Amino acid sequence: MLNQRYAAIDQGTTGTRVVVFGEDGKHFSPAAIAHKQLTPNPGWVEHDPMEILRNIRTCLSQCGVVDAMGLAHQGESVVAWDAQSGLPLYNAIIWQDQRTESVLRRLRAEGVEETVRAKTGLPLDTYFSGSKLGWIMRNVPGADELSRRGQLRLGTMDSFFMFHLCGTHVTDYNSASRTSLFNIHTLQWDEELCRIFGVPIAALPEIRDNIGHFGDVTCSGNTTPLTACIVDQFAGTYGHGCLQPGQMKITFGTGAFLQSITGTAVPDAQGSGLLPTLCWKLPGEPPLYGLDGGVYNAASAINWAKKIGLYSDIEEFSDFPDQPAIARGLAFIPALSGLGCPYWDRSAAGLWAGLSLETERKDMLQSILEGIAMRSAEVIYAMDKVRPIGDTISVDGGLSANLYFKQFLASLIQKRIVTPSNREITAQGVALLARKGLGNAHAMNVSTQQVTTEPAKRDLSPYFAKYKDIISRSRNLRSE
């Protein structure tokens, strides 16, 4: 047992990587492969699932012998495939894809959103899987016929990968809870929800605990059990050690993804704009629930600023004056893909307010960081009202390396920000779960080193109130 090794498959939005952990917590990443981003129409985002499957196999072939594997995946992205051939009927439709917005507007007009919220905790938003699978059923040739013959397989991307790697059509409770088709109270696929979105329930995968024996993976002549599966953001939550009510983490990636733990009962988040969510379920235990809130644009806003020529080197996002840009009257609303939690408003658009002849590029860059922090603070405040969170928040992702950003956020919310020194926090969560799924109960020796950012004793609340007013002006700006 002392020499056991665990491979964490981290299949994300832009690429696939594998990180191998030993019992001593030491780890290495033998391979990482990016995949193509396909955008056939404005607002559409697709991936080739067979390309990603090949990338997973290639990464695993570089691992050597391991004792167990775990899979973290994109979450709400979906695939449809033929059970006999194993081939996808269409590209994977990715969580960022907005092609179903008109369908969701119709469903809102029909008054079904409250039914969906009550059963799933989720709003009607293109972010989630149900409307994407319904689009496939209506628009992809052969899907309906395969369904009638019992040959159609539908699911989030984990189920497609496990079908090919393990020969099983399965998913886990956490992944299922992100689809808008899973009832978080009954812990089952829901017939009424499937009818609302036009998804055949018989084509959906079997739902299992987040750890256990999902099947065996054969790679380079070695057969290894796959013992954990979870959405990448929640793998990060587990990797951060956020396991108890009141603990919270934020991952700053393409967007900002905030999760807090609330306990073993579904939290009452009515009217908050937050998403009650099932974080994970372990064998013989009740599910652990939490609150989830997404800000659509974080690193994507930084990348956009580079695209339009505001900076050329990421080092330019440093050495800002102590006075915030918003104190000088400049504010940025990072609604480049709309406003996520707590608004869930795709009609909102990005907005700068307070521009003047004195505004310089450096001011605009500073305001972008502050805008992402302000949007994150909105979600934190909302979570704190539903279930008080502790005085420390753990963060990871690209923006967690920016000292100004962390200091501004810590001072704004008056909470300590900690950043784990281990940058493989998502993979660490997967490895810990895979290890637990193999039956190892004693603790693995993982690094607890972290960088702490203490809040400054300054009152930024007047600026937050001003920011909230500016946010209201960003809404209903986007044409349909």
From TrEMBL:
This is ATP:glycerol 3-phosphotransferase. The keyword Transferase applies. One of its GO terms (cellular component) is cytosol. Gene3D superfamilies: 3.30.420.40. GO terms for biological process: glycerol catabolic process. It comes from Serratia proteamaculans. GO terms for molecular function: ATP binding; glycerol kinase activity. Belongs to the FGGY kinase family. InterPro entries: ATPase_NBD, Carb_kinase_FGGY, Carb_kinase_FGGY_CS, FGGY_C, FGGY_N. Keywords: ATP-binding, Kinase, Nucleotide-binding, Transferase. The lineage of its organism: Bacteria, Pseudomonadati, Pseudomonadota, Gammaproteobacteria, Enterobacterales. Residues 6-220 form the Carbohydrate kinase FGGY N-terminal domain. The keyword ATP-binding applies. PROSITE patterns: FGGY_KINASES_2. Residues 248-434 form the Carbohydrate kinase FGGY C-terminal domain.
